[in-house]
Amino acid sequence: MTTQTWNSSQQPKAASETPNVENYHLKLWVGTVKSLERHPKLDSTGVLGERNITHVDIFGTVIDRVSLARADIYVLDDGTGVISCHLKKNDTEAIDGLKASIQNDSSIMLISKEGEEGIEALLTLLENEKKEFEIGDTLQVKGRLSFYKEEWKLFANFARVIEFEEECYRCIELETLYENIFHSS
Question: What homologous superfamily does CATH list for 23-89+133-182?
Answer without folding.
Answer: Nucleic acid-binding proteins (2.40.50.140)
